[in-house]
């Protein structure tokens, strides 16, 4: 990956983006009572159940109040705090030590300023029919404030650029986290869609149940659809309830909730993209003990690239070598 700090180079990246921006419809939000400058933990433990994503076995996940003001994931007696240096690039997910598919709960914690401990029966977290809704329901009337959550932000704009894709971080003169994300897929279903939104607990409480996506060519998608109608795969917990299946010009199992009545556009794909791409910021928040604010602009930003940038941003020496720091 290449680090860019020159404003003209960053400007050049932005000028290649799709000029047609999508925005979340205003009704895609819900009141949460969360104070953005406060941090929270749970009052008491709760348990969620599902099929572990890679093991395809029934599994329980216990979510409990964070100890010592830090979050962690545990499996078979091994406990991992949110240190990106402990991340592993394996299957398409964010893996921390031996614990896999942590990106969804990370996004939930990021949105709510929440610190929690996760204990797993299997090494991978389940892929739920409603993604992060199970965590949000377990946390209802179950949160307590534990301190202030100071804003943290980058001292100056920079971009990390890979062979394909990039992520730009910039400070902003406001107290918000703004996401500008673009995807690139064949056909018209998703295409080169670009969305800009403020990421916070109110918007996340609406779209946090957007399903994991499966984009396939038409032949494979049709095959997957028939498998889904027959009950799903035998060796992987794929069903038409926990995965959003689409091809170049068709969504096979849309949910009406994500349909914008005015435009006819279904936002579920892009909403799950947001869940995936913001999750790495939780590593930075735990490292610098704050709430990340500013603007993040992304393109082709997959889970392995998110591990790269988490390791870069959480390494003060890396930042200093490039004239960058995290301020509060």
Automatic annotation (TrEMBL):
A Pfam family the protein falls into: LpxC
Domain of life: Bacteria
Keywords: Acyltransferase, Transferase
GO cellular component terms given for this protein: membrane
Coiled-coil region list: none
GO biological process: lipid A biosynthetic process
GO molecular function list: acyltransferase activity; UDP-3-O-acyl-N-acetylglucosamine deacetylase activity
Function of the protein: Catalyzes the hydrolysis of UDP-3-O-myristoyl-N-acetylglucosamine to form UDP-3-O-myristoylglucosamine and acetate, the committed step in lipid A biosynthesis.
Protein name: UDP-3-O-(3-hydroxymyristoyl)glucosamine N-acyltransferase
């Amino acid at each position: 990956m290449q680090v860019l700090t020159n404003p003209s180079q960053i400007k050049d990246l932005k000028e290649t983006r799709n000029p047609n921006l999508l925005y979340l419809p205003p009704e895609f939000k819900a009141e949460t009572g969360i104070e953005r400058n406060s941090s929270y933990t749970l009052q008491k433990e709760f348990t969620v159940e599902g099929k572990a994503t890679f093991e395809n076995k029934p599994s329980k996940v216990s979510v409990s109040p964070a100890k010592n003001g830090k979050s962690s994931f545990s499996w078979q007696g091994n406990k991992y705090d949110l240190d990106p240096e402990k991340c592993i690039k394996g299957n398409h997910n964010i893996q921390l030590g031996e614990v896999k598919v942590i990106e969804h709960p990370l996004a939930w914690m990021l949105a709510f300023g929440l610190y929690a401990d996760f204990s797993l029966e299997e090494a991978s977290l389940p892929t739920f029919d409603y993604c992060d809704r199970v965590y949000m329901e377990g946390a209802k009337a179950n949160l307590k404030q534990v301190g202030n959550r100071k804003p943290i932000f980058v001292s100056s704009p920079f971009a990390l650029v890979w062979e394909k894709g990039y992520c730009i971080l910039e400070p902003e003169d406001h107290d918000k986290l703004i996401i500008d994300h673009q995807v690139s897929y064949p056909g018209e279903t998703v295409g080169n869609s670009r969305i800009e939104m403020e990421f916070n607990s109110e918007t996340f409480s609406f779209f946090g149940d957007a399903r994991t996506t499966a984009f396939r060519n038409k032949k494979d998608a049709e095959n997957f659809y028939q498998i889904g109608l027959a009950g799903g795969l035998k060796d992987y917990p794929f069903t038409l309830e926990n995965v959003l299946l689409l091809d170049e010009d068709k969504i096979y199992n849309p949910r009406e909730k994500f349909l914008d009545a005015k435009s006819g556009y279904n936002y579920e794909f892009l909403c799950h993209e947001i869940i995936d791409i913001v999750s790495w910021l939780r590593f930075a928040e735990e490292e610098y003990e704050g709430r990340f604010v500013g603007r993040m602009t992304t393109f082709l930003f997959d889970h392995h690239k998110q591990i790269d940038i988490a390791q870069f941003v959480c390494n003060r020496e890396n930042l200093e070598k490039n004239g960058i720091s995290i301020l509060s």
